[in-house]
Specification:
heterodimer; A: alpha/beta; Rossmann fold; 6-stranded mixed sheet; 4-stranded antiparallel sheet; 10 helices; globular; B: mainly alpha; ABC transporter involved in vitamin B12 uptake, BtuC; two-stranded antiparallel ribbon; 2 strands; binds adenosine-5'-triphosphate; binds magnesium ion
Chain lengths: ~300, ~350
Amino acid sequence: MSGTTTRAPLVRLTGCEKRYGTIVALTGVSLEVGAGEVTCVLGDNGAGKSTLIKIISGMHQADAGTYEVEGEPVRFGSPREALERGIATVYQDLAVVPLMPVWRNFFLGSEVRRGAGPLRRLDIRFMRDTTRTELRNMGIDLRDVDQPIGTLSGGERQCVAIARAVYFGAKVLILDEPTAALGVKQAGVVLRYIMRARERGLGVVFITHNPHHAYPVGDRFLLLNRGRPLGTYAKGEITRERLTTLMAGGEELEQLSHELEGTAAADAGLGRVAEELEQDVAGLSGEAAAPPEQGS
Amino acid sequence: MSQAVDAGAAPATADERSARRSALARLLARPEAGSLAGAVVIYVFFFAVAPPFRGLDALATILYASSTIGIPAVAVALLMIGGEFDLSAGVAVTSSALVASMLSFQLTLNLWVGIAVGLLLALGVGALNGYLVMRTGIPSFLVTLATFLMLQGLNLAITKVITGNVASPDISDMDGFGTARKVFAAEWDLGGLSLRISVVWWLLFTAVATWVLLRTRVGNWIFAVGGAQASARAVGVPVRRVKIGLFMTVGFLAWFTGMNLLFSFTTVQSGEGVGNEFLYIIAAVIGGCLLTGGYGSAIGAATGAFIFGMTTQGIVYAGWNADWFKFFLGAMLLLATLLNLWVRRRTEAAR
Ligand SMILES: Nc1ncnc2c1ncn2[C@@H]1O[C@H](COP(=O)(O)OP(=O)(O)OP(=O)(O)O)[C@@H](O)[C@H]1O
Ligand SMILES: [Mg+2]
């Protein structure tokens, strides 16, 4: 590694701005993530979360602001360049090919080969075994790494995508809404997995619109609202309740909850749904905050 | 990156569970399983109803008929696994044969020069198809429909202008004919049994394609670009290069088939080949290729072509009206498609 002796953060963005034509998707946004840290980016739909990670992952370039990796200013032209600096992104759609076996997906784009000349071929045994071991190390025991990845559950697929990034030497892991489409249990598996990655010393940027998923695993929280930062908080500086309130835009939420109560009075069914939702969420964060209980 | 991997440390449970997948189960899970079973059934059927079908010489004829569809079908299958179509493949066969023969004939060149130019043309058409598809994002169905029509027009028009006729001139007394015939259209006499070289080429191309698909990095990429193009790109697969390469492979095998026809018959009809592109696609689909890409096999496409060959010849040997052939082909296509649909549902719904 180059000679930066000061502990510069793995990734630091300052005063970042991004426009799509006349739409300002992001402005004045700063973000930092160090080794062994989880920075959560929270915001409602359209807040600019995906735009922000596309800048970090090299898919887009910022129109203004600076981007440093380990203290060194960078300007990535493609995701490949970011990947070479150890910044790996697990996109919302996971970048897996459903009909292909798990192990082929695991090594896709970075296949291991043996032999030479026209007999150069895939080292299938190595890739199979490695996939199995890597997944087991992260606490997923697959019956068969030859099954199409499309047959795994959403949470398992998410974990395979993350394990792949970790295995290929990621220093920074960017996760775009990894828990969005998951049930409570599955989301718990992914959150636990994020903490494993952190324990391994990776920096994690975790994008979500669910404060109950972010709070248990995050060290730092960046809140976005319509492309502007609402604030950055360290874990000690903010409570879960405050985070939730801020997320929904403070008074707006109060207003909303009054409205909802009004509706709920009219429609008891809706109220019940809301209650169940709250219970689910509470149950989950309890589960995820517990230390990983994997034996052996 | 590479953590030490100790395969021996795998607990016994994992080994037991993988061992449970027997060889038969693995075979049944392959894309070509259905077509192999179908081929056996059809063979047994014609064996039972058509006595002339039983002889080895009949088998040789069937294999030859199969190879003329099977060689381009291998490439078409690879392309379909990669998620694209090529409707120009059928007429590209004729185009390369016409170019090779008429160019050599008009300029009195050695036939090998014409053969080389025909190859360049076929690869060029493939590259153009691929480039247009990748560059514009227009579905390959449309792009290659356009090149199909253009090539068909050129085949007819240029042949008419040059020869004043609908067929290319006879090239059997030209320089290079003997050697080219040995390569593309040799016929061996094995104790009264005539075996055509194109059968050997067909099996060879199928074997190479199978090796590439299952054992090489490019094969992995072909499945990936067909199965989920955006995902493949995101993990660093060179999508454009893979797809253009696949279109060019179709061009290559179309050229090869054209050379086989040219040196078997010494002359080519300019209107030939139209409709054959569907036979190639049908062979690939009967062999288990999904129309939507990402799934299929070269052995399946070869089996599909063999089914095609058995049915065309079998109907003749059985002494039936050849009109029945299309019905059979349609029925088999329907069966194969239903089977594929079921496979797809099983992998996608089991989440
Ligand atoms: N390619 C684009 N062209 C034009 N506008 C865009 C583009 N991508 C995003 N935007 C706009 O930028 C804003 C931020 O979008 P972004 O996708 O970053 O939001 P998000 O926080 O990820 O939302 P979600 O929670 O729905 O994923 C939105 O208003 C969106 O419409
Ligand atoms: Mg988003």
